[in-house]
Design goal:
- By secondary structure, the chain is α/β, with parallel strands linked by helices.
- The protein has one domain: Metallo-beta-lactamase, Chain A (4-Layer Sandwich).
- Helix content is 21%, strand content 27%.
- The protein has helices at 22-30, 56-62, 78-81, 86-91, 117-123, 204-215, 233-240, and strands spanning 2-7, 40-43, 48-50, 70-72, 99-103, 111-112, 115-116, 127-131, 135-138, 141-147, 154-160, 163-168, 186-190, 220-223, 246-248, 254-256.
- Strands 8-5-4-3-2-1-16 form a 7-stranded mixed sheet.
- The chain binds zinc ion (2 copies).
- One zinc ion binds next to helix 3.
């Protein structure tokens, strides 16, 4: 499987508009990989996109993605969904089949003035809506939804034959410690706070490192890297040296599993 990290940023992008912190100034001057757009992952094998942040059009252009046939949503939070209009961009006047959209086991309920947007898009044949209760086969890829313990977000086991990754783009603090998530070829998860210690949010040392210890993936790659961590691309590269088999993702990172 060939994955491309389209966006490695979090709910606040780097550079952040109107921000003159050193991280944002450097990103504005140098561009990628100092720049981090909203988190999104693409699986090239079957043209599968995971989540649609507002930056998704720019991300697809930046990484020269040729086609999107499937979109899988992890949860409703705005940083993962608000680029949903990419469906219109990708299908209007193109004569292509509707994009297969897989939502968690409930309605994403993106509404404007009381009108539900996704059923409207379905009526325009931009997409076909599916509820992903348990798992789905898309070509040779199997995607199994793993509900997180917070009750609203999901992670996914993505597999092809014996090759497996566990992808949890947000709320890693709520990853269930269960047998089937152990010993993955790769785990991709959101980076928790490096400094702030809020018990309701993922923290790097308390949660990310504990989860790695308990689930023992062969390697771990972090995404959803926030501007608010005030940490530069080069500083993350330095941090990597302190840990074994832990990597900080960046926009355009290729992950072969
Ligand atoms: Zn900034
Ligand atoms: Zn998020």
């Amino acid at each position: 499987m060939k994955f491309i990290m389209l966006g490695s940023g979090g709910y606040i992008r780097i550079p952040r508009a109107c921000c003159n912190c050193r991280v944002c100034i450097e990103a504005r001057e140098k561009g990628y990989p100092y720049k981090r757009l909203g988190q999104s992952l693409y699986l090239e094998d079957e043209n599968i996109l995971f989540d649609t942040p507002e930056d998704i059009n720019e991300e697809l252009n930046h990484l020269q993605i040729r086609e999107v046939d499937n979109i899988i949503y992890s949860h409703w939070h705005p940083d993962h969904t608000l680029g949903y209009r990419i469906m219109e961009t990708l299908r209007e006047n193109k004569g292509l089949n509707p994009i297969n959209v897989y939502m968690p086991g409930y309605d994403l309920d993106i509404s404007l003035r009381g009108n539900k947007v996704l059923p409207f898009f379905e009526s325009k044949e931009y997409c076909k809506l599916n509820i992903l209760e348990d798992n789905v086969n898309i070509g040779k890829i199997n995607i199994k939804r793993i509900p997180l313990t917070n009750g609203f977000a999901s992670g996914f086991i993505i597999s092809e034959g014996n090759n497996k990754i566990f992808y949890c783009p947000c709320h890693a603090i709520s990853i269930p410690i269960i047998e089937e998530l152990k010993n993955m070829d790769c785990m991709i998860m959101n980076l928790g706070n490096l400094y702030k210690d809020d018990t309701s949010l993922t923290n790097f040392k308390r949660d990310n490192l504990r989860i790695i210890e308990e689930l023992k993936p062969k390697k771990t790659i972090f995404t959803h890297i926030e501007e608010t961590e005030n940490t530069t691309y080069n500083e993350f590269k330095e941090m990597e040296k302190q840990y074994k088999d832990i990597y900080f993702g960046y926009d355009g990172m290729i992950i072969n599993v």
